[in-house]
Amino acid sequence: MVEDKPSHETSRGSKFLGCEMREHAIAAIPGDGIGPEVIAAGLEVLQVLAQKDGNFRLRVETFPWGSDYYKKHGVMMPGDGLERLRAFSAIYFGAVGAPDVPDHVTLWGLRLAICQGFDQYVNLRPTRILQGLSSPLRDCKPGDLDWMIVRENSEGEYAGLGGRAHRGSPEEVATETAIFTRRGVTRIMRFAFKLAQRRPRKLLTVVTKSNAQRHGMVFWDEIAAEVAKEFRDVTWDKMLVDAMTTRMVGKPSSIDTIVATNLHADILSDLAAALAGSLGIAPTANVDPERRFPSMFEPIHGAAFDITGKGIANPIGALWTAVLMLDHLGEKEAALRLMQAVERVTASGLHTPDLGGKATTREVTSAVCDAIQLANALMF
Ligand code: IPM
Ligand code: MG
User: Is the pTM above the cut of 0.90?
Assistant: First the structure.
């Protein structure tokens, strides 16, 4: 982890024509594959939104880190990368991964280095069926699937602990150790209960695999029961992760907030995104709730080489991600307005091929910009 210094005041207010003008410093890391296409779309929409709002502006700096940088420099980001990001209010991240660089290199060299270096211990994954989209689940209407997945993002199966010995020999052995700490599990549990408490249904499902994994997962169950005592008004239940997949498919409306380990929630959130219509729309926030470090916002779809450069990547994942970022920056009204503009466009039927349509990234992005302008025109 980066040495803990007092947090920087990176979102500033200044007086402009008698009005308070807030400025947020955004570090954009478009990365690889379709990352640059969707981040460009997101930044364009964000600037239109800021201009229309008039009360805040975004100062964006773009960092060319990722697999191309790796091929030139042998590292995914420079050695002082975290120090350079530290002063920003938020990081807007595209995707990483390249067909000719091993995935664990790209992942550990950039995305995980930022998540773990900045102790972004919460990974938040809202999932719902946006207007105009449909679930592959028969009879599942938009209101039936409205989930908030809370993924532990700092330890567990992604702790990076393990090793290999006797490489290439018949005796070869590899270990991959999951780490669960009282501090790590308690803080994610508390975050999840608090979040569930703020949602109308006040309903939390704690996912583990404590029948088979009798140490770390039983520990999770015990800490869940301890933390639950602080949140008497939250109804909570426990599910084994395998049973949770069938519940997500069979009884989606019985679920509201979900908390799970790093790996379990990784898997469940892909299922969730598919059940909500497409991986192309799903957003995520890697958050340091204590705001000691900048938080990082990214669509969950990844690099998607099969469609890179074709201009048909779905920008909705990056735009919904921008909604989470605005919310985190305190721009609640702008966040709401952007979400409404996005849903006006999804409702209109203008869909990219992953949603069964023919629209391009450009067309969807322009339509969202138009929807923002129109909404503002109607307001004044
Ligand atoms: C995600 C992704 C990543 C993860 C991959 C790219 C390593 O699947 O954000 O869900 O597993 O964390
Ligand atoms: Mg994943």
Answer: yes
Name the residue among 197, 199, 207, 190 with its Cα closest to residue 259: 207
**One-letter identity of residue 23:** E
Is the CB–ligand 1 distance for residue 331 below 6 Å? Answer: no
Provide the CATH topology of domain 135-276.
Isopropylmalate Dehydrogenase (3.40.718)
* pLDDT one-digit tens code per residue, 283-317: 999 999 999 999 999 999 999 999 999 999 999 99
Environment of ion ligand 2 (residues, CB < 5 A): 266
Write out pLDDT tens, residues 42-77.
999 999 999 998 899 999 999 999 999 999 999 999
Two tokens at 116?
């773990």
Topology given in CATH for the domain delimited by 1-120+304-380: Isopropylmalate Dehydrogenase (3.40.718)
Alpha carbon nearest to ligand 1 atom 5, residue: 107
CB 280, CB 223: distance < 8 Å: no
**Closest to 131 (Cα-Cα) out of 340, 374, 336:** 340
